[in-house]
Amino acid sequence: MSDEQRRDGESPEMKGEQPEEVKDRWTQGPDVSQHVNDSAVSAGGVGNSVGDDAETLRERQRLAQLEMMDRWIGGVLTEQRRTRRWKLFFRLMLLTIVLVSLTTTVYQVWWAESVATVPTQPHLGLVEVHGVIASDAPANAERIIRGLNRAWSSDNAAAVVLHIDSPGGSPVQSQRIYAEIMRLREQGNKPIYAVIEDIGASGAYYIASAADEIMASPASLVGSIGVIYAGFGFQEAINKLGVERRVVTAGENKAFLDPFQPLDENVEEFWQSVLNQTHTQFINDVRAGRGDRLADSPEVFSGLVWSGEQALALGLVDELASLEQLARAEVGGARWEDYTPRLDPFERLTRRFTQAAAEVLGVSSSSSPLRFESP
């Protein structure tokens, strides 16, 4: 074998060369080395690591890692400060919205009503009865009674007018309003009228019957003097679904209206007696308010709804007239003022949300199962 071949076959150990160490790409890669060199140059050191011992190189790598860590921590802190600033911004915006809402509510409830200009000319004092009559609805007894007393005590209100557009609602709320109208009517200081727009049925007609006179349009819907309870029976459905109903009561009839149990004959008879008694109260109060003007016909109290023209013939209304016609007859012009207390905007929003949720869930928002309401 020649000398050249022997030289080519020699191993690195035989040539006197040392094997290269395995490099860690995270601490000894080209990027780190370049960063170390740049840091060394910026610090006034030598930019080339050739000739440096291993300890010096490791120290420079450690410093480079610390510098990168400092940059990372700085970025994290900057992001946290930015996040805190946005949180603070949104909290301030929310606080501003709440303060503006509260200010608007206080203004409308206290200040706006107190500074509202009441006409100095004679006018009709309107009290609006719109929508379902219920304790949790705009047409509730407390609000309507407050409006009645405000219109009654106004010196320039020549008459109090119940402006009705309602299918009825709660028997208790209707009875409270009826009683207050009758109390004011007995004082005799000024007339009280009921003007029915599209519909004045059931509980709404209960209220109207307390007025001195009732007016309606020829096509208005009037009447529905009756009481209704409506529910569902799910006992067959629950059996088919294989669902077990668990109800624990104290009192054998406590759950007598449970829709998942069949309606017993005795229970149905009892519940019918409750409806009949409430219906009797309705009839007696309508007769007390209308007197001899009612026609002597059993159909008047059968729960039927009549047109305004038919209602006139049955004595359920006194005249076919509009609000404008009444105003011209009473005060010589179409002048009226709404005395119904304004609704709190937040309360109005809450009520709408509650009603929408009740409709979605298929439940009634009223606390009473009985209704003076048009079907």
Quick recap:
With 375 residues, the chain is α/β, with parallel strands linked by helices.
- This entry's quaternary arrangement is single chain
Uncertain segments = 1-22, 40-50
Mean pLDDT: 80
Number of domains: 2
Radius of gyration equals 42 Å
- Helical segment tally? 12
Secondary-structure class: alpha/beta
Q: How much helix, percentage-wise, in residues?
A: 40-55%
The helix-strand sequence is HHHHEHEEHEHEEHHEHEHEHE
Kindly provide the name of the CATH class of the largest domain.
Alpha Beta
CATH architectural group of the largest domain: Alpha-Beta Complex
Structural features, described:
The protein is of the alpha/beta class and 375 residues long. It contains twelve helices and ten strands. The chain has two domains: 27-116; 123-229 and 270-373, 2-enoyl-CoA Hydratase, Chain A, domain 1, CATH 3.90.226.10. Helices cover 50% and strands 13% of the residues. Strands 1, 2, 4, 5, 6, 7, 8 and 9 form an eight-stranded mixed beta sheet that branches. α3 packs across α4. The longest helix is centred in the first third of the chain and has 62 residues, at 54-115. It is flat. The termini are far apart. Residues 1-26 have a biased composition (Basic and acidic residues). Belongs to the peptidase S49 family. Residues 187-327 form the Peptidase S49 domain.
